[in-house]
Amino acid sequence: MKKLIISGILSFMVLSIAHSQETAPAVTATAAPAPVTQKADEESPALMFGLKFSPSYNWISIDRKGFDSDGGYIGYIYGIMTDFRISNTNYYFATGLEVSARGGKYKSDLIEVQGRPDAKGKVTQRFQYLDVPITLKLKTKEIGYSKYYGAFGVIPGFLVKANRDVDFDDESYEDTEKSSNQSEFGFFNFGISLGAGMEYKFSGNSVINAGLTYHNSFVDVWSEKNATLNSNYISLNLGIFF
């Protein structure tokens, strides 16, 4: 239900932006062509390069007997971003290189500890990925100093490290913190992203970027048989283009 609500909100924002592109006032047959809009598009840089930092709310979808999702995890994303304008249009190809710290929480009565596979407890699972977003971005024409955009794409990711905290119900077991378990997960992750936001030009070609992105992973990253685990998040994107 959470995924449907988030996807619905972001889809509405993207469709609203696309509709605003199509409903520009028509020019009468007797009016001379106005070069202002075309000039504004030509003045937009063909290549934009910048830095980003995005706090994120993360959760894991888990399907395994004896395991249940048990809450979210606050993570972050940082890296470089680039927008390439496609010809003389308001469409952009957006990509970059990002480090994402994500994860989630689950509880289980089948945690393996001290040679026993049936300990009960709560687990905070963390992942760090190196991501390469590949996105098509549609921007509105400039309104004052601002542009609004919708974006849709995919995010391939490569696992850098994974660790977990375990809080056992049985006090006879010692709780663990940041215990590495990278070998339990696959190297590659892949998901779709849907987002919307705005850009504000404040000096020359310098632009502040703010928006929201929803990421839904399609790849089961758990190496365990008869079990699946997907890492998802929604992020608040903050960045600056130079």
Helix and strand topology:
Layout: H1 2-22, H2 36-43, E1 47-63, E2 67-69, E3 73-85, E4 91-113, E5 116-131, E6 134-139, E7 146-168, E8 176-180, E9 188-203, E10 206-217, E11 228-241
Structural account:
The protein has 242 residues and is mostly beta strands. It has one domain (2-21, 47-241): Beta Barrel (Porin). 12% of the residues lie in helices and 61% in strands. It contains 2 helices and 11 strands; from the N terminus they run ααβββββββββββ. It has helices at 2-22, 36-43, and strands spanning 47-63, 67-69, 73-85, 91-113, 116-131, 134-139, 146-168, 176-180, 188-203, 206-217, 228-241. Strands 1, 2, 3, 4, 5, 6, 7, 8, 9, 10 and 11 form an 11-stranded antiparallel sheet that branches. β4 and β5 (116-131) form a beta hairpin. The longest helix is centred in the N-terminal third of the chain and has 21 residues, at 2-22. The protein is elongated. Mean pLDDT is 86; it is low at 17-40.
- CATH arch. level architecture: Beta Barrel
The separation of the N and C termini measures 39 Å
The shape, in one word, is elongated
Return the CATH topology. Answer: Porin
Unreliable runs, pLDDT <50, ≥5 residues? 17-40
Can you summarize this structure?
This protein is mainly β and about 240 residues long. The chain is built from 2 helices and 11 strands. Strands 1, 2, 3, 4, 5, 6, 7, 8, 9, 10 and 11 form an 11-stranded antiparallel beta sheet that branches.
